[in-house]
Write a structure and sequence with these properties.
mainly beta; globular
Length: about 150
């Protein structure tokens, strides 16, 4: 997924369901975790049409153009791929595996805005939904910070 320009971002948010009792009004007396959502954004720049076709579901090459088509009704989990994000140091990929991020199941989706002006370089902010693993041995896990040898 290179080249990229800017911050590669992985975000995670826990959803919480609040528990109330009448005697306490709007103050909640407990809360329950009700799931977690993880997403990733990679700002691709100077990308080839072949690279963009790979990360834009429903797109296809037609000669020297990338056709952007409607996408509806396709499972994402079954087509999700593992992603490893490696830190860059002094223009080189870090070989220290404890600095890497390993995401087990991520699938790109389209949500981008392309600006055309003289002040900036265009990037495609490729977004990914990250799914908890359904695989035996990793069930419920999104991935790891650090990669075991």
């Amino acid at each position: 997924m290179a080249p990229f320009l800017g911050k590669v971002e992985l975000s995670m948010k826990d959803s919480i369901s609040k528990v109330y009792e009448e005697a306490y009004g709007d103050a909640y007396v407990d809360a329950v975790f009700s799931g977690s959502v993880m997403e990733m954004v990679i700002p691709m720049t100077r990308s080839t049409l072949n690279q963009l076709e790979t990360v834009m579901p429903g797109s296809s090459l037609s000669g020297s153009a990338l056709l952007l088509k409607n996408k509806c009704g396709t499972d994402m989990y079954v087509n999700a791929k593992a992603v490893v994000i490696k830190l860059m140091k002094d223009g080189k990929v870090s070989i220290v595996k404890s600095e890497w991020l390993h995401i087990y199941h991520a699938h790109p989706y389209r949500e981008f805005a392309i600006g055309y002006d003289r002040s900036g370089q265009r990037t495609f902010g490729v977004k990914f939904l990250v799914f908890p693993s359904l695989d035996s041995g990793n069930e419920g896990e999104f991935g790891t910070i650090g990669v075991n040898p």
